Amino acid sequence: MKKLSLFIVCFIAVASLLTASSSYEELTKNFSVGKVETQSLSVMTFGPEGILFVGDAKGGKVFALDLNDRVENTATKGFGVEDIEGKLASLLGTDAKGVIIHDLAVNPISQNIYLAVSRSDANKLGFWKTPNDITNANILLRINPKGDITEVDLSSINHNKANIPSVIAEGKSTNYRKSDNRTDAITDLAYDDGKLYITGLSNEEFASALRVLAFPFGKKAAYSTIEVYHVAHGAYETEAPMRTLLPYQLDGKKYILGAYTCTPFVSIAVDDLSAKKHMKTKTLGEFGFGNIPIDIIQYKNKGKDYILMSNNSKALIRIDPNDIPSQEALTTPLKDGEYAVGIAHSVLSRVGITQIDNLNEKNVLVLQRMPNGQLNLRSYNTDWL
Amino acid sequence: MDSRWAFFLLILHCSPIVATAQNASHFQLVSEESAPYYGTIKLTDYTTEAEETPFLVFPRPPQKGDPPMLGTFESNDSAVYFRPRFPFIQGRTYWIKPATIGRDSLIPLNIPQQIKLEAPQLVSIYPSGDSWPANQLKFYLHFDQPMEVGKAMEYIEIVDEDGEKVKAPFLDMGQELWDANQEQLTIWFDPGRIKTGLIPNRQYGPPLEEGKKYQLRIKRGFRSITGLEMERDRIKPFQTSSSDRVQPDPATWELAIPSADTQDPLVVRFPEPLDYALLKTSIWIEDRQGNKLAGTATIGGNEASYSWMPLSAWATGTYQLHIATDLEDLAGNNLERMFDAALSKDAASSKSVVTDIQFVLK
Question: In what order do the strands lie in the sheet with B213-218?
C-alpha cells in the first residue's frame, strides 16, 4: 500500500522544480495544525514532500499528514530489526502477541519507516482475518535508519482531510472473512501526479469502487464502480474490493494495476476511469485461489523494471511489465486442472512476507515471519529479487 | 596494578551520579480512582541535577534492543511520576530499570488484578412477572459479572407442580446467547414445540401447559469467568395463563401525557407485559419533523409500562411515540405477525399496523 515508485519520486522531484503548484508550501497551504481525528489508520502511502496519506476505513475519510520529514537521505544501505513485534511490545508495554502491525510505508525522501499499529490480541489473526478485521490501528510509529522507534504525536500535527463518497455502511457482514463490511471501505490507496487513487467498497449496487481524489484536497472525489472477471469463479464480480493497487505508466499511458483476493491481477486505463461511472477491469492473469494480495510495488533489478506483489500465502510474486501490453483479457472460466493462468509470473522463494515497500534505490523493505515465529523487519537487495 | 589502586578505582566508578540511590522501596504504584487501571509509577526520594531519565520501564526483562515503554515523566518536589502511554496490563509484572544502580539491576513491579473476586449473583430475570403465557417464547437472565460460556444448560431447569423436571424445554442452539459482556443470557423455549402442528409439537407437546404452576431454577455452581460459583439456587415460581395468540396493538395502549415546560415522563401502559429486551430498543419519541429525541427510558414493573423522560423540559407541540414493528409480547407475537401463525397461509396480518401514536403537549 505505499508503492510510491522511484519513477514517481523522480517525476515529482522534477515537477516540483518546474511548477510552483507542487511545492511544499503549495501542497500544504490548506493544512492546519491540530488533532488528527482518525478512527482507524487502515492503510498508508506516501505522497510528495513527506506527506503521508492515511486511509481511515472506519471514519470513511482520507487524511494527509505533514510529517515534517523532508531531510533527504540518498544512502542505498539495507535495514533490519529482528523481532520487530518484541520491540514494539516493549514500547507499548505488552507481549509480542499483544501488538498488530496494520500497515507499513517508507518515506522515500528520508527513508524513515512508518508503521500503523494497534495494541491488540494478535492471536485473533487468521488466514482470512487480516489486521484491520481484528481492530482499528490507532498508533503511528516512526523508525529512523538508526533503528530508533518513536511515536508520531497525532494530537497536534499539520494535516488536512477529505471525505470518501458513498462509503459502505457499518454493521453488516457479507464477506467470507465474517468481518464488518466497513473494514473494506478503504483497502488501499496510492498517490500519483496530484491524484490519490483509493480502492474499497461503496454503498452502490456494484459495491467495489475506485475513487480518484485530487490533491491538494478541495474537490469532491470522483468515483467509478468496477467489476472484475474472476477466472476461478467463471464470473464477473462487483462485490469484492481490489486489495492493493499501483499506478503504472506503460507506453505513455497511465494505468492502475491491482489485485483481488483469490488472485485476479487486473489493469484499468486511468483515462477510462474519469469517463465512466461503471467499468470492467481487464483481467491480465489469475494467480490462484486461497490467496490475499497485500502490497504491490515497482522496483528495478539491475536496471530493469519489475512489479512485485506480496501475499498472505503465495510468497512474493514478480511480474515483468513488458508482458502486460501483449496480454489478452481473460474472459473464460478456469478449466479442470488449471490453477494460475494468464500473464507470466515468477513466485520468489521468500516466504512469510506480508508488507513490502521500496526502501531506497537498491533495497525493498519487508515484514517477514521467520520459521521460529519471529517477525523481522528487513530489506532485500533488489538485485536478488 | 597495585590492588589498593584497583579498589579505589572501583569506588570511583560506582559512586552515584545522583544524590540518592534508588531501591525497590522508592518505587510505588499509584492509582487514580477515576482510572480503571493502575496508572502511574511514583518514585520518591529522588533528587538529581541531571537531566537524564530517572528510570526506564519494560514489560519484560529487557533484551538487547528493547526500547523502554512509551510514557511521560513528571516531577514535583522530590517525586517523579511515570505515566505509561498505554495502561499497564493487570496481572502482569513490569520491570523498572533505575538510572542510578548497576546496569543489570531490575526492580519487578506487579500490577494487581482488579477483577471482581466475589461469587456471581443472578441480579434479575425477565419476564419479571409471575404469570407467563403457556406459549412463553424466551426469558433473560442478568448476572452481576461476566459468566462462563458453554455450561448454562447444566444449571437451568424448569420443574412442574409435581417436582418433575420438564424434559428438554429449551432450544439447543449449540451456541449460548450471551451479550458482549457475558453478563446477560437469553434462553429460548423450543419453538418447534411451541408452534402448533410442527413435528416436535405433535410428538412431545408444548414445553409449558396452560394453567399450571412451575419453577424456573438456576442452580448454584454456575460459574463466572473467574471460576467462582453462584452460592445459592435461585428459584423463580410462575404460573401459566392461556396461550397468547393476540398480537400487541399500540392502539390499545394508554398514554399519560406530561405538561409542557416540565420534565415529567411520558408514561405508556400496555394491556399485557412486553418483551424486556425489545422494549429497550423498539420504542422512541420523535418530534413533528421525525427527529429522534434524547431522553431516558425506564421499563416499568412486570414490563407492562414504559416511561420516557426528556433530557430538557418538554416544549409545547406535537410529538409521536414511534414503535418498531419487531416489538414482541411474551409469546413472540410482534406488531406485524403472530409467532404461531399457520405456515401455509400468509402469516402477516391483514389489518394495518399502528406504529406511531401522536400526542400533543399544551
Answer: B131-133, B234-241, B213-218, B156-159
* Domains annotated on chain B, with CATH: 3-110 (2.60.40), 122-241 (2.60.40.1220), 250-361 (2.60.40.1220)
Q: Do A93 and B65 touch (CB under 8 A)?
A: no
Give ipTM to 2 decimals.
0.84
- Test A87 with B57 for CB contact under 8 angstroms: no
- Give the nearest chain A residue to B83 (CA atoms): A93
In CATH terms, the fold of domain A6-384 is: Neuraminidase (2.120.10)
Residue A278, pLDDT above cutoff 50: yes
pLDDT in tens, B279-304: 999 999 999 888 888 889 999 999 99
Return d(Cα A285, Cα A288) in angstroms, integer: 9
Enumerate chain B positions whose Cβ falls within 8 A of a Cβ in A: 57-60, 62-63, 65-70, 84-89, 94
> How much is the mean pLDDT over chain B?
83
> Environment class of residue A230 by beta-carbon count within 10 Å: exposed (0-12), middle (13-18) or buried (19+)?
buried
Tens-digit pLDDT profile for residues B300-344: 999 999 999 998 889 999 999 999 999 999 999 999 888 887 654
Coil/strand/helix, residue A306: strand
**What residues have CB less than 8 Å from A303, skipping those under 6 apart?**
none
From chain A, pick out residues whose CB is under 8 angstroms from the CB of B57. 93
Contact B69 A90 (CB under 8 A): yes
The string of DSSP codes covering A169-220 is PSS---STT---GGGGS--EEEEETTEEEEEEEBSSSS-EEEEEEESSS-SP
**Cα separations (Å) of A131 from A2, A119, A121, B29?**
17, 11, 10, 33
User: Chain A window 248-277: which residues touch B at a Cβ cutoff of 8 Å?
Assistant: none
Confidence category of residue B4, pLDDT binned at 50, 70, 90: very low
More confident residue, B193 or A276: B193
- Mean pLDDT over A198-216 rounds to 94
Per-residue model confidence (pLDDT) at position B303: 97
DSSP class of B279: H
- Domain layout of chain A by residue ranges: 6-384
Which contiguous run of DSSP H or E holds residue B295?
Answer: strand B295-299
Specify the pLDDT at position B37: 40
